[in-house]
Write a structure and sequence with these properties.
197 residues; Arc Repressor Mutant, subunit A; 50% helix; DNA-binding; DNA binding; transcription; transcription regulation
Length: 197
């Protein structure tokens, strides 16, 4: 069973308490739901740092949602809970939408999809250590030289290399070089001597 922290922001007591009650009944996901004051949303989100924020678009407008996404220190999905259909332009601001008329199964499916997306994304994101290994590889360093530079064992470097290959599905130094340049891990002039002429 997956565990997820969810914050609910709405000026409607019926929406917040109703959603909290529904979330508590979900079978496949264990939810810790916190109601937050829309007037103090920035401050409270900073303390709670939920993975999912459910907002009432009548209380938190689309502009505020964009601001919350851009200023959040960690990955946060934002779901709109609506009573009437949202305009298409507004609906695109949210990661998902749910209706107050949705069944528990529909809400579970929506949350499961978000959690699956988050898990897939997490598998593709490299840790800082893995980025350091990629940088060393594209600069032409051996495993031993990378290990010395990072102050770790050669076995640790090799484990990082396997994880990198698994996450990125890139299995050649040339492919890693392209990835490193596109991801801005290295600048082209840093690795010119390693590139074929």
């Amino acid at each position: 069973m997956k565990h997820v922290d969810i914050a609910i922001a709405s000026s409607s007591v019926i929406v917040t308490t109703g959603l909290a009650a529904i979330l508590a009944k979900l079978r496949d996901i264990h939810v810790t739901a916190k109601e937050i004051d829309p007037e103090r949303i920035d401050e409270q989100l900073g303390k709670l740092m939920p993975l999912i924020l459910i907002v009432d678009p009548l209380t938190i407008d689309a502009q505020k949602v964009k601001e919350l996404k851009s200023t959040s220190p960690s990955r946060m999905f934002i779901i709109a809970v609506y009573t009437t259909a949202l305009p298409i332009g507004t609906a695109r601001v949210y990661d998902k939408t749910i209706s107050i008329y949705d069944s528990i199964d529909t809400i579970t499916a929506t949350l499961s999809q978000l959690l699956e997306d988050e898990s897939d994304e997490g598998q593709k994101v490299l840790s800082q250590r893995e980025k350091d290994v990629v940088t060393g590889i594209v600069k032409g360093l051996s495993n031993k030289e990378i290990a010395t530079e990072m102050n770790v064992s050669v076995n640790t470097v090799m484990t990082h290399r396997r994880n990198i290959a698994s996450k990125l599905q890139i299995h050649s130094p040339a492919g890693l070089t392209i990835y490193a340049i596109v991801s801005k891990l290295v600048k082209l002039d840093e690795i010119k001597s390693q590139l074929p002429i």
